[in-house]
């Protein structure tokens, strides 16, 4: 009789605790995109034209944007005076893009259609270009862009090994692009909470060059005005964020004036290095202190929510009210 009542008491207590913790756990979640933005855009440029450095990079940088430039090793061999195609970047110029914060990544060694070659040749297209980019720029690519966007399940599996992502969807802009059309596309990303990947080639000349280059420069200004809603990030940064966001698991516990969020993420922490953003509902209490691994994290306090970036591979995040 005594034993039974003890069990009853314990189970009653557990029920109360469980109910209380469910009721009191704040609605904390991972933001859809970095810094709580509604959508993300990556501007990607194929084939390594010189004007990507001379014209595109400065216009993007004016707006604090960084782009992704996909290059083919065969067109960048030698120096600027000894190139196979003088309209292409030299390795020194490609490295300059990297040093200015842009992503320089793999578009295949010789721009071969991977659907038309053997597995051994596919491996060469991918790995030889990784190595030559690493040798000349100092960074091994962690993304891949298929020449002619040609891929199948086998090619995609081969190209995805050891990477944060490969370009599997894109919206092309060039000859037919208009300022209105480009802006409509951005609004579509905001409405659907999606990641838009723009694909461009030539700017003034070359494949699918813009009829009026001002369309692109004005577009960057249009997007800058939407910066509260849009994260413009390199392909590798957005790809990493999205994969981490969709893979992380949070355990949330409430203890009096403290919320403890324990992340667990089963990805390679050497490859996936983007912080994730926590979205915390804002309470009436005036101040919060947020810490992870003994470091104080700096939150962005908005009218209805608090945003804070944290390391998804790190220890528990503690929010003290
Ligand atoms: Zn290409």
What is the fold's blueprint, element by element?
Blueprint: H1 2-24, E1 29-30, E2 39-46, H2 50-62, E3 68-71, H3 91-99, E4 103-106, H4 119-137, E5 143-145, H5 153-160, E6 165-167, E7 171-172, H6 179-192, E8 195-200, H7 214-224, E9 230-232, H8 235-247, E10 249-255, E11 258-264, E12 276-281, E13 289-292, E14 295-297, E15 300-301, E16 305-310, E17 317-320
Parallel strand pairs: 2-3, 2-8, 2-9, 3-4, 5-6, 7-8
Antiparallel strand pairs: 1-12, 10-11, 11-17, 12-16, 13-14, 13-17, 15-16
The structure holds zinc ion.
Zinc ion binds next to loops.
Kindly list the characteristics that best describe this protein.
single chain, 321 residues, alpha/beta, six-stranded parallel sheet, five-stranded antiparallel sheet, 17 strands, binds zinc ion
Task: Describe, in plain words, how this protein is organized in 3D.
By secondary structure, the chain is of the alpha/beta class. It folds into two domains: 203 residues, TIM Barrel (Alpha-Beta Barrel); 73 residues, no CATH class. The protein is 34% helix and 23% strand. It has eight helices and 17 strands. The strands form four sheets. Strands 2, 3, 4, 7, 8 and 9 form a six-stranded parallel β-sheet that branches. A five-stranded antiparallel β-sheet has the order 10-11-17-13-14, with no helix packed on it. Helix 6 links the parallel strand 7 and strand 8. Helix 6 runs parallel beside helix 7. The longest helix has 23 residues. The protein starts with a helix and ends with a strand. About 5% of the residues have low confidence. The site of zinc ion has 5 residues, from loops.
């Amino acid at each position: 009789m005594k034993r039974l009542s003890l069990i009853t008491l314990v189970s009653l207590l557990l029920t109360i605790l469980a109910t209380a913790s469910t009721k009191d756990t704040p609605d904390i979640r991972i933001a859809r995109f970095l810094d709580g933005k509604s959508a993300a855009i990556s501007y990607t440029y194929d084939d390594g034209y010189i004007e990507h450095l001379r014209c595109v990079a400065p216009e993007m940088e004016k707006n604090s944007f960084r782009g992704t430039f996909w290059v083919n090793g065969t067109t960048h061999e030698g120096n600027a005076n000894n190139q196979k195609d003088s309209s292409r970047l030299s390795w020194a110029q490609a490295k300059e893009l990297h040093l200015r914060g842009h992503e320089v990544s793999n578009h295949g060694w010789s721009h071969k259609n991977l659907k038309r070659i053997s597995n051994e040749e596919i491996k060469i297209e991918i790995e030889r270009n990784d190595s030559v980019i690493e040798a000349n720029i100092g960074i091994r690519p962690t993304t891949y862009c298929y020449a002619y966007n040609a891929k199948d399940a086998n090619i995609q599996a081969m190209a995805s090994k050891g990477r944060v992502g490969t370009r599997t969807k894109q919206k092309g802009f060039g000859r037919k692009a208009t300022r209105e059309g480009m802006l409509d596309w951005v609004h579509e990303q905001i409405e659907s909470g999606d990641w838009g990947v723009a694909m461009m080639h030539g700017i003034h000349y070359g494949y699918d060059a813009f009829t009026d280059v001002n369309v692109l420069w004005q577009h960057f200004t249009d997007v800058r005005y939407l910066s509260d809603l849009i994260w413009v990030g390199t392909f590798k940064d957005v790809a990493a964020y999205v994969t981490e966001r969709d893979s992380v698991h949070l355990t949330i516990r409430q203890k009096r004036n403290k919320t403890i969020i324990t992340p667990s993420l089963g990805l390679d922490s050497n490859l996936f290095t983007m912080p994730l953003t926590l979205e915390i509902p804002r309470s009436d209490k005036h101040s919060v202190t947020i810490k992870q691994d003994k470091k104080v994290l700096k939150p962005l306090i908005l009218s209805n929510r608090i945003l804070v970036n944290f390391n998804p591979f790190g220890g528990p995040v503690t929010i003290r009210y």
